[in-house]
Amino acid sequence: MEAKLKFKHNHFEIISNGDYVICAVSKKKILLENLNYWNVELQEAYFSPVEVKIKQGQLKGE
Q1: Is 10 helix (H, G, I), strand (E, B) or coil?
Q2: Which of 1, 18, 20, 54 could form a disulfide with 29 if both were Cys (CB 3.0 to 4.6 A apart)?
Q3: How crowded is residue 18: how many other Cβ atoms within 10 Å of its Cβ?
Q4: CA 41 to chain CA centroid, nearest Å
Q5: What distance in Å separates the CA atoms of residue 24 and residue 39, rounded to the nearest whole number?
Q6: Strand (E) positions, the chain?
Q7: Which residues are bridge partners to 32 per DSSP?
């Protein structure tokens, strides 16, 4: 079941219980125990540094 989270700096709060969230870029499932990358301002989770870099490029218009 998908969790609903509030992303904060260095941690996140669980708003609605679940096992995973969806990567905003790749749409892969990310188990909460493996969640290490997110954007506080956009409130998005990312599967890995690869997706973070892709998102940064999109925001810069690359």
Answers
A1: coil
A2: 20
A3: 14
A4: 11
A5: 10
A6: 4-8, 11-16, 20-22, 29-31, 37-39, 44-46
A7: none
Number of helical (H) and strand (E) elements in the chain, helices listed first: 1, 6
- Cα(40)–Cα(50) distance, rounded to whole angstroms? 18
User: 3-class DSSP state for residue 21?
Assistant: strand
Find residue 15's DSSP bridge partners: none
pTM beyond cutoff 0.90: yes
Q: What is the pLDDT of residues 11-36, one digit of tens each?
A: 999 999 999 999 999 999 999 999 99
At 62 the pLDDT is 75
3 and 34 Cβ atoms separated by less than 8 Å: no
